[in-house]
Design goal:
Chain A is α/β, with parallel strands linked by helices. In chain A, the strands form two sheets. Chain A has a five-stranded mixed sheet. A five-stranded mixed sheet of chain A has the order 7-6-8-5-9. Chain A is globular. In chain B, helix 9 runs antiparallel to helix 10. Chain B is globular, with a radius of gyration of 22 Å. Classes of the chains: A alpha/beta, B mainly alpha.
Chain lengths: 246, 260
């Protein structure tokens, strides 16, 4: 066993010395709202760095932070809110200082044709309507809480979902009359979902931080991927998805 | 008893450790000092109560539909019985979350059947406690059916034939002869079914969503608590572990003693 360990260590050292930062597998844990844009960025990154393979795990930022703190082998973490990034910097899983790469705001999402005749945030207090929100521990849920407080509305949700895509799915299937998701999610859903702006959205602007992990198995590539997200090309993809610049 | 060869003994012991160490870990990491407060907290009580109620209701649904179905599979003289049995065991091997998606597409508000429930009766099932019961019953019923069918096949049909020759109707025979003779199988199936319903996660969160007091059952609460309050997740897990052990204890005559 010890001999095996020595061999592995030696190989790792050789790998580092050879400085091939942008090859091999890069594991990226990213907020669910980044699903489409990061998938695209991953493809672009692979095209630019032949030999690199980007693997994603998209989920609610709180679930991802939890998995990272439990020791999941991850290279890069992109959270939908600073609070969930703080969970991993507090635990020491991330020691680099996270960079904010985009901003996002909430939008009211209704199924095509707006069957519930939802016109504004006030409708979320109507118990007669089926309403989906994100659970409070995920960033979209925390943001929803903020806008309801700002608008002085007591929301009457029927379900608190684990990530923003789960909320969006309930809207797409027409199972709920209204939901609060990110404007980028409404955009990604295409024609099946209609988005409605509301003034209180400005009260909860989510800043998305990204950082390489302290124990990234592929540290060089982790940094390269973070740099790529922050690059001109990366920002362009994110802007096309509807994110705003930080 | 002969001394087992090392080539069998070592993997066997590794197997025991693999199954038991995680459970022991749960007990080691438990916040014992904080346990009473956690157990009495509103969230835990609410989730436990909801879980017990929905699992019991789901089990009743399974009994009402599953026992006749098991009888049909064991005694009914219908063509294609093998195919029918294979089909109804699909939910047994299907990932529960797929079951949840299927339920949503059929019984959801825009679903194949659900749209008429909504239109004609104003009934919508997703995000309701009824939805939780349905999701649990969908996943748990095959356990009951298989168990009862096995018991029916093992039972001696001559008693039923004797009852029939004495003039009993088939329904009377079923109630007074068949059912009592397979009661141990029905009880075991019921307990299994109930335990499966109690542990149901994937179909529930997919079909019924998550709202405290309405659809957040124990397994959902464990999963959610892990993200915010890991100690609470451990407490909830221990409660479920104790319930599982109680179920096993209830079945001990049947399983733990094994064939003698």
């Amino acid at each position: 066993m010890r001999r095996l360990l020595a061999v592995v260590t030696a190989l790792t050292l050789v790998g580092c010395a050879a400085k091939q930062p942008t090859t091999g597998e890069i594991t990226v844990f990213a907020a669910a709202s980044l699903t489409e844009s990061f998938t695209k960025l991953g493809k672009d990154f692979e095209a630019k760095n032949p030999g690199a393979k980007v693997k994603f795990n998209f989920a609610g930022s709180s679930a991802l932070a939890q998995q990272i703190n439990q020791g999941a082998p991850v290279d890069v973490f992109a959270s939908a809110a600073p609070a969930n990034m703080k969970q991993v910097t507090d635990s020491g899983a991330v020691t680099a200082s996270p960079a904010t790469f985009v901003k996002n705001t909430l939008q009211i999402a209704v199924p095509k044709g707006n069957p519930g005749k939802v016109s504004g945030l006030a409708d979320f207090g109507n118990p007669g309507l089926k309403i989906a929100l994100c659970a409070e521990q995920v960033p979209c849920g925390a943001a929803a809480k903020k806008v309801f407080e700002a608008a002085k509305i007591t929301a009457a949700p029927d379900t608190l979902e684990q990530d923003v895509k789960a909320v969006l799915t309930k809207v797409r299937l027409g199972e709920v009359d209204a939901a609060l998701v990110y404007r980028t999610d409404v955009k990604s859903a295409g024609d099946s979902v209609e988005g409605k702006d509301f003034p209180e959205a400005d009260k909860a602007v989510n800043e998305y931080p990204i950082a390489p992990l302290a124990k990234a198995p592929n540290a060089g590539a982790a940094k390269a991927f973070v740099d790529f997200v922050l690059s001109e090309q990366g920002r362009k993809v994110l802007a096309e998805a509807g994110f705003t610049a930080p | 008893m002969t001394k087992p060869p090392a080539v069998l003994l070592l993997p066997a012991l590794a197997g025991v450790a693999f199954l038991l160490v995680p459970l022991a870990g749960l007990l080691v990491r438990a916040p014992w000092a904080d346990l009473p407060r956690q157990l009495l907290s509103a969230e835990v009580g609410e989730a436990l109560r909801l879980s017990l109620i929905t699992a019991s209701l789901a089990t009743i649904v399974c009994l009402l539909l599953g026992v006749p179905l098991a009888w049909l599979l064991a005694r009914g003289d219908l063509p294609g019985r093998g195919i029918l049995r294979a089909l109804i065991t699909v939910p047994l091997v299907l990932p529960p979350v797929v079951g949840g998606v299927a339920l949503l597409l059929v019984l959801g508000r825009r679903g194949l059947v659900g749209q008429y429930l909504d239109e004609w009766f104003g009934v919508t099932l997703p995000f309701t406690t009824t939805g939780v019961v349905l999701a649990e019953a969908f996943v748990a019923m095959p356990f009951l059916v298989i168990s009862v069918e096995g018991a029916l096949r093992a039972a001696d049909p001559r008693f039923e034939e004797a009852a029939a020759t004495l003039g009993a109707s088939r329904w009377l025979t079923f109630r007074r002869v068949t059912l009592p003779s397979v009661m141990p199988g029905v009880v075991a199936g019921t307990v299994l079914c109930w335990a499966r319903a109690l542990g149901e996660f994937g179909a529930t969160i997919t079909f019924a969503g998550n709202f405290p007091g309405r659809t957040t059952t124990m397994p959902l609460a464990v999963y959610l608590a892990l993200e915010t309050d890991p100690d609470a997740a451990i407490v909830l897990s221990i409660v479920l572990l104790l319930v599982s052990i109680a179920v096993l204890a209830g079945l001990r005559d049947r399983w733990i003693s094994g064939p003698t």
